[in-house]
Amino acid sequence: MNTSNKSLNLVDSANDFHKINSRETAISINNVEVSFSTPKGKFTAVKDISLDIKRGEIISLIGHSGCGKSTLMNTISGMVLPTSGEVIANDKVVKGPGPDRGIVFQNYSLLPWMSVYKNIFVAVDSVFKHKSTDEKHAIVNHYIEMVNLTSHKDKLPSQLSGGMKQRVAIARAFAINPSILLLDEPFGALDALTKGSMHIELLKLWNLDNRNKTIVMVTHDIEEAIFLSDKVVVMNNGPAATIKKIVDVNLERPRNKKAIAHDPEYIRIHDELLGLLFDKFSIED
Ligand SMILES: Nc1ncnc2c1ncn2[C@@H]1O[C@H](COP(=O)(O)OP(=O)(O)OP(=O)(O)O)[C@@H](O)[C@H]1O
């Protein structure tokens, strides 16, 4: 990626900005319960969930498979509405999806018949209706360049590697400039090396935006959660899953993946998260 110099220059000022800005609440999850109607009756996926997420924070949701991470995330995106309680995003009660909340899924959700360029253009075009075509092209080119895919912009998704597809999905999410970015296991399908470089690219984009975007990510990967996040929200097993603990990640940014693994605080957080996920209450099923 050709953004490293820019992002390095922004790091110090971004630190200050982040501290000031992080005092505002971007997302408030208030006493949320989500139940689904199933052929066997009502199924409560999550309940009693209350969580405040500050502007510019990166939050990870972790927990065992099926505990309700995606369901909770989808209450923020508006794709799932709470059965009771409410989610407030950018000071408005969430009643459905909106352009202030961009989402990236594990399966990239790119339109297979459209080029890299077109996939991003379509999203930009639908959100920035008031902008001229030239402005929209400039936005698309800017974000394609940011994820270093300019030479691949005319390719179809089927002609790209998994990491490249995920970069397109991330570029598309950033291009519509949502203040809240929701990532549902975005790197789950990638090999360790590609995953590592995607982490760096995500943080570069976040830095270039002055660490102003609020990012909520679902992951199964403890190391990924610690490396990227300010807080890790650990969920209990479902049904009727609740938040088990919110673990603060007080590790200085920018973080170096190699160095951080030897940091005593990293090791402590890692042990705590392992304990929370694999204690006797978590493995009863
Ligand atoms: N539309 C639905 N109707 C009925 N049950 C649902 C629905 N969506 C999710 N569930 C159930 O709610 C629970 C939580 O699902 P969810 O996908 O949120 O879990 P998750 O923690 O994200 O899982 P994973 O880590 O495996 O992706 C599961 O038991 C799932 O079967």
From TrEMBL:
InterPro entries: AAA+_ATPase, ABC_transporter-like_ATP-bd, ABC_transporter-like_CS, ABC_transporter_ATP-bind, NO3_transporter_ATP-bd-like, P-loop_NTPase. It is found in: Cell membrane. It comes from the Bacteria. Gene3D superfamilies: P-loop containing nucleotide triphosphate hydrolases. Its main location: membrane. This is ABC transporter ATP-binding protein. The keyword Membrane applies. Keywords: ATP-binding, Cell membrane, Membrane, Nucleotide-binding, Transport. SUPFAM superfamilies: P-loop containing nucleoside triphosphate hydrolases. The lineage of its organism: Bacteria, Pseudomonadati, Bacteroidota, Cytophagia, Cytophagales. PANTHER family: NITRATE ABC TRANSPORTER ATP-BINDING PROTEIN, TAURINE IMPORT ATP-BINDING PROTEIN-RELATED. Residues 29-262 form the ABC transporter domain. It is a peripheral membrane protein. GO terms for molecular function: ATP binding.
